[in-house]
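User: I'm preparing a small set of examples for a lab meeting where we compare how different chains pack in three dimensions. I only have the primary sequence for this one, and I'd like the structure in token form so I can line it up with the others. Please keep the answer compact; I'll paste it straight into my notes.
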Amino acid sequence: MTLFRLGIPLAALTTVAKVMAADSSASAQGVQITKLEDRLHIEINGQLFTEYFFKDVPRPYCYPLIGPGESPMTRNWPMQSPPDEEHDHPHHRSLWYAHGEINGIDFWSEVKNFGKTVHQGFDEIKSGGVGVIRSHDNWVGPDGKVVLTDNRLLRIYAPKNPAERVFDFEITLHASNGDVVFGDTKEGSMAMRLNESMRLERKKKKAEGHIINSEGVQDGETWGKRAKWCDYYGPVNGKTVGVAIFDHPQNPRYPTWWHVRDYGLFAANPFGRHDFEKLSDKEAGNLKLAAGKDLTFRYRFYLHEGDEKQAKVAERYAEYSNSKNQTP
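Assistant: Understood. Below is the structure token output for the 328-residue chain.
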């Protein structure tokens, strides 16, 4: 039996349809997080933002990372195998957190006898105007022993401006299984691998990417320098877009050193002093965390249209560093 046979007038049906459409539209607004078997699917206003992969991987990572205007901000390999991307550094999985020497174990690469970051569970998954993901992990050596543990927080904001995307990544590292030494190496730590078209240097195509930091240092000179923020921008699908990473003033060793490469690697690394400053002491950047202690790092990712001036990166960093609740 149809609704018409039940005596419901057409005008009422039209009203119901409008209400249902409005409800559907409202439900798509903000940040929606859906838990799947091996990953979290994250949408902003009904469109894919990223997925957080946590099961059967060397370490959790976010892929893809979609910026303003549906611009893919990170490369596809090794998650996919497109012919127009260089297949180097298989451990550069879009966006991740890792370090190359912890108690002598390599937790950065994926070569023989490397350490893995093994997801243990989610403590909170919340959709809304601000999406929240809280989880905890074990850092496991090649012998199967837990070296340390972490708690991490991803906070994803529904954008007020369509020309930007903002999210926070916070991680607390716990010396839960004895002393932990973060070794001095350039291979780390809060990292992403950018879209190939944004690179500062390319082998077969014209490179149009640029890098600038808070101190005004530009392009290749930014590698190994300390700065409050760093911005990497370039063309994606014919439009200039960029990513700025903000180092929080409360972070240990603020302002951090930047392991930012001309081929698209973009990482904040507070441990690599010997490498970055070319010191003779190969342990100058070591950081020891005594058993039972913990260490917290906070970063903000600001995905934007235009270069750092058009996106007002310095102003946005000032808002972040001075904010009590850190809401953009």
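A couple of notes for your slides: Residues 1-26 have pLDDT under 50 and may be disordered. DSSP finds three helices and 18 strands in the chain.

User: Perfect, thanks.
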